[in-house]
Design brief:
Elements (H helix, E strand, L loop, with lengths): L9 E6 L5 H13 L4 E4 L8 H11 L4 E4 L2 E2 L5 H14 L4 E6 L4 H7 L6 H15 L20 E4 L3 H10 L2 E3 L17 H15 L7 E6 L1 E3 L19 H6 L3 E3 L2 H15 L3 E5 L3 H10 L2
Parallel strand pairs: 1-2, 1-11, 2-3, 3-5, 4-5, 5-6, 6-7, 7-8, 8-11, 9-10
Length: 295
């Protein structure tokens, strides 16, 4: 198995803008043609439902893998979710990558009429869900069996130590949010470079001997020309509180030409071990030349 420094890059696209069926089909086919490896959907009220969208994406494409970034596991019964994802995996020909998280936005729980659980309870539900997907499937009902013999690769996303510890023990992919610590239940906000790298280094320490087996993922929030920082907000529309030098270091932002950005990603692979980037939908076209520059 190659070390992290030799691991090939992978690039996902997270799609979330409500669209017609024809627009969704065109969008995911464009992602496949542009060279993306994975197309993912989020799990938020006000956005398209993940499972039907994944099935549509699979039906419209041939190669690209399909995933979630990420299921809010507090919304689901683990056994029922495993059955549903096993069905999607079979219907897609074994292309599912399963992203899981504990949920963070209290407003969505309120809107769904679901009780807002404490952080510890939500993480416990995430742990139960991961355990359900890690069960041997061979002796289960046929509708709970995956096309992929050992089940889909599991991505676990978060920033808290308990989630990162679970990810280091169980995940195939660890996804970092690139966010700062906020009061539990509040929305997300972009973190500074020291905070983001601290979370990455913590996960790498926790991985121990598994460090070369697990991909490290982070979103790409923006792709911008060099020197463009005036009026820049993060993906949640918060004004950025960092100077240009710090913004240039943030792993979720890229500045410069495609070739300069490709060099930046190579450097971050060397220093941070990041090899899997999920590009947010508005940056799909802007990021595509970087994929080409890395070939």
């Amino acid at each position: 198995m190659p070390s992290v420094h030799d691991r090939p890059f992978r690039f996902g696209l997270c799609v979330f803008t409500p669209s017609t069926r024809a627009e969704w089909v065109a969008k995911v086919r464009a992602a496949e043609e542009l060279g993306y490896d994975v197309v993912s959907v989020s799990d938020h009220l006000g956005m398209p439902a993940p499972i039907p969208t994944l099935l549509l994406a699979a039906e419209a494409t041939e190669r690209i893998r399909i995933g979630t970034l990420v299921f809010n596991t507090s919304f689901y019964n683990p056994t029922v979710l495993a059955r549903d994802i096993a069905t999607v995996d079979r219907y897609s020909g074994g292309r599912v990558e399963l992203g899981l998280g504990a949920g963070y936005d209290r407003a969505q729980f309120d809107a769904a009429g679901l009780p807002w659980l404490g952080a510890g309870e939500r993480v416990a539900l995430l742990e139960r869900t991961v355990a359900e997907f890690r069960k041997p499937r061979a002796h289960l009902d046929q509708f709970a069996r995956f096309e992929q013999p050992s089940g889909p690769p599991i991505l676990i996303a978060g920033r808290g130590e308990r989630v990162l510890r679970l990810a280091a023990e169980q995940a195939d992919i660890i996804a970092f949010t690139g966010t700062t610590r906020v009061r539990d239940g509040d929305g997300l906000k972009l973190g500074g470079i020291a905070e983001v790298t601290d979370r990455i280094e913590l996960a790498r320490r926790l991985l121990g001997d598994r460090i070369d087996e697990v991909e490290l993922n982070i979103p790409i929030h923006r792709v911008l020309p060099k020197g463009t920082t005036d009026g820049l907000t993060d993906v949640w529309q918060n004004p950025l509180e960092y100077g240009a030098d710090e913004l240039a270091e943030l792993p979720s932002l890229l500045f410069g030409t495609p070739e300069e950005c490709a060099d930046t990603l190579r450097e971050r692979r060397k220093t941070l071990g990041l090899t899997y980037y999920t590009v947010l939908e508005p940056e799909m076209e802007a990021f595509a030349p970087i994929i080409e520059a890395l070939r």
